Amino acid sequence: MEKLRICLIGAGRVGKVHTLSLKNNIPDAELVAVVDKDEEAARRLAKEFELKIHFKDYEKALDWGKFDAIIITTPTFTHKTIAVSAAKAEKHIFCEKPMALNLEETDSMIQEAKRAKVKLQIGFMRRFDRGFLEAKKKVKQGALGEPLLIKSIGRGPGLPPEWAWDIKKSNGMLAEVGSHDFDTLRWFAESEFEKIYAFAGNYKCPQIKKKYPDFYDHAVVTVQFRNSGLGILDIGCPVGYGYDARMEVLGTEGVIFVGEIEDNQVTVCTKGSGAVSSIYNSWRNRFKDAYIDELRHFVDVIKRDEEPFVTGEDGKKVVEAVAAANKSIQIGQAVSLPL
Amino acid sequence: MEKLRICLIGAGRVGKVHTLSLKNNIPDAELVAVVDKDEEAARRLAKEFELKIHFKDYEKALDWGKFDAIIITTPTFTHKTIAVSAAKAEKHIFCEKPMALNLEETDSMIQEAKRAKVKLQIGFMRRFDRGFLEAKKKVKQGALGEPLLIKSIGRGPGLPPEWAWDIKKSNGMLAEVGSHDFDTLRWFAESEFEKIYAFAGNYKCPQIKKKYPDFYDHAVVTVQFRNSGLGILDIGCPVGYGYDARMEVLGTEGVIFVGEIEDNQVTVCTKGSGAVSSIYNSWRNRFKDAYIDELRHFVDVIKRDEEPFVTGEDGKKVVEAVAAANKSIQIGQAVSLPL
Amino acid sequence: MEKLRICLIGAGRVGKVHTLSLKNNIPDAELVAVVDKDEEAARRLAKEFELKIHFKDYEKALDWGKFDAIIITTPTFTHKTIAVSAAKAEKHIFCEKPMALNLEETDSMIQEAKRAKVKLQIGFMRRFDRGFLEAKKKVKQGALGEPLLIKSIGRGPGLPPEWAWDIKKSNGMLAEVGSHDFDTLRWFAESEFEKIYAFAGNYKCPQIKKKYPDFYDHAVVTVQFRNSGLGILDIGCPVGYGYDARMEVLGTEGVIFVGEIEDNQVTVCTKGSGAVSSIYNSWRNRFKDAYIDELRHFVDVIKRDEEPFVTGEDGKKVVEAVAAANKSIQIGQAVSLPL
Amino acid sequence: MEKLRICLIGAGRVGKVHTLSLKNNIPDAELVAVVDKDEEAARRLAKEFELKIHFKDYEKALDWGKFDAIIITTPTFTHKTIAVSAAKAEKHIFCEKPMALNLEETDSMIQEAKRAKVKLQIGFMRRFDRGFLEAKKKVKQGALGEPLLIKSIGRGPGLPPEWAWDIKKSNGMLAEVGSHDFDTLRWFAESEFEKIYAFAGNYKCPQIKKKYPDFYDHAVVTVQFRNSGLGILDIGCPVGYGYDARMEVLGTEGVIFVGEIEDNQVTVCTKGSGAVSSIYNSWRNRFKDAYIDELRHFVDVIKRDEEPFVTGEDGKKVVEAVAAANKSIQIGQAVSLPL
Lengths: 339, 339, 339, 339
Fold this sequence. Notes:
339 residues, globular, alpha/beta, 15 strands, 7-stranded mixed beta sheet, homotetramer, 13 helices
């Protein structure tokens, strides 16, 4: 079988995760080129993974064009332009979350991908995690009756890069970190967001406050779905103690818990220490298999010409929810959707 | 040492729990009388515990007066009248949560107790649970830096009696079940509620809807404290699967989890069953020791003439928070405190 | 109802635990006297608990005789003499584990108690622990099919007093610590020990080696029951990290786990710390309720004139098993029972 | 880089696991041929994985010879002949556990591999599990002081194929299942087995008893190491409830636990169900990554011309321990090593 040829746009941390997945775990696809504004970064990654070609500008890569699909891992504010250009060039698109900055952008991306008949998949890797999938399956089977409350936690140990501190460029931590949680809520509720209320604050990053007074490092959000279901999410970044992504679904007939913070099934007890277990220190460890599986899925849907499990529409709904939550923080009141 | 003489007002479930604590675990106090509008219930409890006297009306008990303190476990809407009368009769008061229906009532109770120089303790037994206490101690010691988010879960397996379904008589499930959670949030935040937002719904009790259209069986509440700390609580009743009272404190330097749902350290695995552990089926099991310890404390503070650890002021703040949350549910917007 | 009058013989740590149980939790019994060779210890305990009388010699206490039952918490090598004398004086006997030093002693105790028609209960408190009882119930109900392997762990944080280091006076740590584990194995197997093999060593107490060359601080024992079931126990003392008493029953249809080392449902996570839970630091915390319940049972069986749940025969079988294990350690081969 | 060419000998379950690892996770190696006595099985696997060639006899494969290394996953009693022939043909050898039937065989294999200067790695995949490795690292760092007791559990849900029921062909379940546990004990003890005592029985397989009267499905083994450390292992097969591979190291300064039975971080609670978690149902899931990593390591040591982490010597010591345990079962007494 012909290997699917992929071009990576964005040579940062998550870009490297995808590169490793392609190299080590997806034998029927291969990374053939890498693009990064920081040309040195592109060159380094190309060298490390023996890629023959790298680019500073994605337009050049599209001009070259010897690939079937792109993976976008650049900052949020660049997603739309890159994705639309790629769709025009008839390249399939895997786009990291958050999908884009606003609904105009997400709509352009969705429409252009549709017009070009290319796949558009959003990087909500939790949807590929064994535990989340198992929970979803159980909920679908009715193990909990009707789900009525979905809770999600998204906390990361460190701060994202500076561009993400600027709420205008990133939509803030609710977009950077919380996109996964909004998606989880919506995925399990099987309903659309109707009303959102959020509190947030900058509790740990006084140094950021001056330059970015809107920056918040922790937020709590409650939502109501159209089907009247409820949701709670809280996000925090940086939380220091580790990477924490747990969820809970309360239904009319029971509850289901997904995820834990301990990461390697080892507990050490010494005098006065208590029982000590390691904590996940990164999304890379916590969702190692899910990152592989989402890319595996992307390659499969292209090859089989099917719809991806996580679509542009899914990405768009989260962008809208984040916008509503940010507005709620700003005005101090609940916000109704659609915006 | 002379035994402290106590009169129980309310011969229901929690009344019996306190009776057992007094009989089996607090040797320097004794229950000497019981009062219940349902005279048969009073008679039964008196017989079972070999009490010489029981009453239908608390006024009669106060007329008789041969006791030092009362325990109030009657419906919320009766608390204020009983407590004020007891204070006037110079009896110390242990009052179950929720303290009362509104701030006028709580203020009367506090003032009258103060004037009469009697103790007034509210039944927030979680404050006496070993785990909650240990967590609080760790937070005070600064183990988590500054607490910035406090989360609490309050879910019970069954429904309270019918009077509690009427939000006018009970303030609803946020009062009946959630009082503990509001108190936990405030206890750990060491700050007062500033703003509260709540969603609620009746997801499981269609039969109640007709008679009590305001009734909700699940609610999620987010709060902001004056010190800018955040809080989340969710309550549900009846949840069926068990009694669930867990909490979490996220601070600037770490996180602490308190409580679990498994109740007896036994796990059974058979073919196809998975690993199965029992779940707490009642607050009586989950907080068995805490119920004893809060009463032990009540007896101690009377004997030593000290302030109780959980005061009328604590009860009042929770009544206010519940009122704000109920108002938020009603108007669909956040509510600022004080009311 | 008349209170059952009890005399405590042995004013040490476990003696005080029983004293507290009697005072705070068993209203229909009362401690009326205490005996200790160390008269000062007896006086201190008598004073603290407002007992009117204390003795240096148990014979004097028996001469005085104004009590119904005794609790023996003295060193093992004294149990037999005290118990036999008490039985002759027609006092009911609660005797701490290990029951006695050898089978002659256990037989005398059993026979004398029988002759005098007094109750003889051995202090295997694990049999009164909620978790152990729940597990036993499940096994009896056939949840695991036929039990075929029973495993028990007995580890304590510190060393017992010096007399216990002398294997001639105590039968060593397998008696002091492991008696509970042998009893657990036999209780769940519902069969008698047939063959025992043991390894042991002194790994942590070089200072004891000189004076007591036979002393071992850790041991592993495998047993075969007459019904062909298997057992494993390992004991260690001092282990430093905490008090650890867990068990496991493997049956033909499944497995059951009992106990955990974490003690208060609190987990703290900070940067680099991992997830940290407290560990039980003492049998007093781990089996707090079981200590109360075994004494509650003792009082009940006396009042109702029934057989205790844990009899002298149970104590004897453990003494025999410990002797076999010690012999196995000595000769380096398996030992068959009965001895 | 040239891909390492590998020939698989044995197209059964574990053979397929290794095939999948090579295909999906080890890009610099490739499976080029498969051998199986059951030619249909060889053909099927060849077809499924698009291999150009397959063989009925390993000799034919060696004659063909266009590969660098072999993976042996055939029944134990064939290991030695295949491995020695492969070594003579200068092929590197990855050999599944148990390494061979007896010490003569293991010695031949080791010597021939040495003479031919080919790598010989034994399939103790637990040594590549993240948790086991983390525990080993902590022990090496002295986190527990000196390890003094190592415990290992090895239980599988189903029975191995019939050849393994014949103790003469397989050395029984202690070899088939317990090899991993013996290796774990020795790896952590860093000392050699000195004395071994074992009990065993056939508790669940009466149907096997007639044809194979020596067959046992459960066994418990205690060992003493030369450095005086202790070990316990228990194995069972079939246990029905799942695949269970946990271990524990008790040292002079603490204890470490590795592994759990719950497999996907999902817990479901419904009315009356308790809290239910899935259990590992197979070694394939429990040690998914370890199986990949051991093969990754095998490829790496060949490419870098280094010694494997798990050598023939390691395999041999386990064969010896199993033999001693089987002898102990037979004679009913402890057995000293070396045999």
